[in-house]
Design goal:
about 280 residues, mainly alpha, two-stranded antiparallel ribbon, about 5% strand, globular
Length: about 280
């Protein structure tokens, strides 16, 4: 049986996602865990008080906020961050992109997140993969300033230098010298070095999808955006996933080059727009 683990509120930009992940974790650890039991522990009058918040039908009011802060035994900083997430969610009208923007622009909240979260595993950091691929470019130069300039500010110089050092330390990159010139090149595929968690995977894919959103603004001759909406039989879902995986592998084999001049990102999302009612 899975062991119960603590969930760090500072890893979240959406308070509802934090609540959902906590419920899911408790349910996996203890199958008898339910919204009714949780509502009782929170001192709420009805199950709907918490389910409507989690399902996005209403925001957590002051009473529920206080109950949740007590339940999670948040300290002063955690409680403040949790309350601010709720305020931001209300102001952004649940728009995830606006929520992230508001969080990034709030220096106090940003500092709280950075000081109270562990460094993300390189495997789940899209910027680490980008830096690794940057070393393949003909004009690559091993400095944070060059990385910031080449990624048009997507990766700031201090972060770029730190990622470069971490990739070298983890031996995903190797350093050598030729005629007195420093050469940094990939030595192995980036693999997870810490426990794989739902939080880290969600954060990774969120970052990738945020990049997709920004790509809309780029020159159409330099990018390709496509989407298809289709009906299907659920018995073909695994077949569809297999086809997508095979395409991804073939695409990389035919397009990727060790003698490159740009770094690109390929995202593929396949998900349902409908849901069968549970009996």
């Amino acid at each position: 049986m899975e062991k119960e683990t603590s969930i760090n509120i500072f890893n979240y930009s959406d308070y509802r996602e934090f609540l959902r992940d906590f419920f899911d974790m408790k349910k996996r650890v203890n199958p008898s865990w339910s919204y009714g039991l949780w509502s009782s522990k929170l001192g709420l009058n009805s199950i709907s008080s918490i389910t409507m918040v989690i399902n996005g039908q209403r925001h957590a009011g002051k009473k529920i906020q206080k109950s949740l802060i007590t339940f999670f035994k948040f300290d002063e900083k955690e409680a403040y961050y949790f309350e601010e997430l709720i305020k931001i969610s209300k102001s952004s009208k649940n728009d995830p992109n606006l929520t992230i923007l508001m969080l990034e622009q709030n220096s106090e909240l940003k500092e709280l997140r950075e000081k109270n979260t562990e460094s993300v595993d390189l495997f789940f950091n899209w910027k680490a993969h980008c830096v690794k691929e940057l070393t393949q470019l003909r004009d690559f130069f091993p400095s944070g300033s060059w990385i910031e300039k080449r990624t048009n500010g997507l990766i700031k110089k201090d972060e770029g230098k730190e990622l470069l050092d971490e990739l070298l330390k983890a031996k995903f990159l190797e350093r050598s010298y030729l005629n007195g010139n420093e050469i940094i090149a990939p030595s192995s595929t980036i693999i997870p070095t810490k426990e794989v968690t739902k939080e880290s995977a969600h954060s990774y894919h969120k970052g990738l999808m945020e990049n997709s959103f920004e790509a809309i603004k780029k020159d159409k001759n330099k990018r390709s955006l496509h989407a298809t909406t289709l009906s299907l039989s659920t018995e073909n879902i695994q077949k569809a996933k297999d086809i997508i995986r095979e395409f991804q592998i073939e695409f990389s084999e035919q397009i990727e080059s060790s003698d490159a001049d740009e770094v690109y990102q390929l995202n593929i999302q396949f998900f349902p727009l409908t849901e069968t009612e549970k009996e």
